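User: I've been trying to design a sequence by hand for this structure and keep getting stuck. Would you show me what you'd pick, starting by listing the structure so we're on the same page?

Assistant: Good idea, let's start from the same input. This is the structure you sent:
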């Protein structure tokens, strides 16, 4: 039981660190389906370009 709990804690810590680094790199998670299989990817955030047009 303690090995399983340690694995869950390690996986949660790795996921948290990955999301924090993605956020710092101005990336977002993209979820979708590709040919019937789930896919997860980091993609750049879309920026509004209203400031450069005005």
């Amino acid at each position: 039981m303690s090995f399983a709990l340690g694995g869950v804690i390690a996986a949660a810590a790795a996921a948290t660190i990955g999301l924090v680094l993605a956020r710092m790199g101005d990336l977002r998670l993209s979820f979708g389906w590709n040919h019937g299989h789930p896919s997860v990817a980091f993609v750049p955030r879309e920026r509004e370009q209203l400031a450069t047009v005005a």
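That's my pick for every position. To get oriented when you compare it with your attempt: The mean pLDDT is 86. The first strand starts at residue 27 and ends at 34.
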